């Protein structure tokens, strides 16, 4: 039987949000870190923190089928995407509706998709931020769970803004997940 408090994190890269979710876990347990990239640096971080990992490189459907077997084996009830750089299939979303969260580095619904910080700067925004949202079939369009505003400062480039927003993400995501699993 799956348990909403048993969380799997999906990553594709360094996983700094994954590290924050593991280290600041309150009211939930991260029991698996999974990746579609076998050399994702975040996998080493997870192992160093004592969290079991699953990594497999395959076409989307094949990866998702193997992932779901691992999720079932670990009795996962909630999935947290953390820099997972792949679109989840509609079939997967349908089976996990309402149980997948993601963090996005803008104030959704503004600036969905990739290259977010450059687009925020190009739009002349004075305030940016990050959003924890439910994951639906349409990219970055699920219900908003939590948001934090972050100022855009004069002289910001994408890298400086990204670093400021990432700091806010590392606070927002664990807090939002802790409240989500208790809802
Ligand atoms: N079905 C959904 N899947 C995902 C969502 C979502 O809202 N619905 N959120 C994304 C968010 N994201 C990163 O966090 C993300 C955004 C865009 C892309 C993307 O365009 N990927 C391309 C190429 C990826 C690759 O190089 O393999 C693609 O999948 O065609 C990825 C991630 C996470 N998934
Ligand atoms: N659209 C998704 C997206 O842009 N996600 C962003 O990728 C970074 C991953 O960092 P991390 O791997 O260190 O957590 C984070 O800033 C996250 O918001």
Question: Mind explaining what this structure looks like?
Answer:
InterPro entries: Formyl_transf_N, Formyl_transf_N_sf, GART, GART_AS. The record marks 140 as: Raises pKa of active site His. This protein is of the alpha/beta class and 183 residues long. The protein has a single domain (6-181), classed as Formyl transferase, N-terminal domain (Rossmann fold, 3-Layer(aba) Sandwich), CATH 3.40.50. The chain contains six helices and seven strands. It has helices spanning 16-23, 41-48, 60-73, 90-95, 116-122, 158-182, and strands spanning 3-11, 29-35, 53-55, 76-81, 100-104, 127-134, 144-151. Helix 1 (16-23) runs parallel beside helix 6 (158-182). It binds ligand LMY7XDAE and glycinamide ribonucleotide.
Question: What's the arrangement of secondary structure elements?
Answer:
Blueprint lengths: L2 E9 L4 H8 L5 E7 L5 H8 L4 E3 L4 H14 L2 E6 L8 H6 L4 E5 L11 H7 L4 E8 L9 E8 L6 H25 L1
Parallel strand pairs: 1-2, 1-4, 2-3, 4-5
Antiparallel strand pairs: 5-6, 6-7
Organism: Sphingomonas alba
InterPro entries: Formyl_transf_N, Formyl_transf_N_sf, GART, GART_AS
Family: Belongs to the GART family.
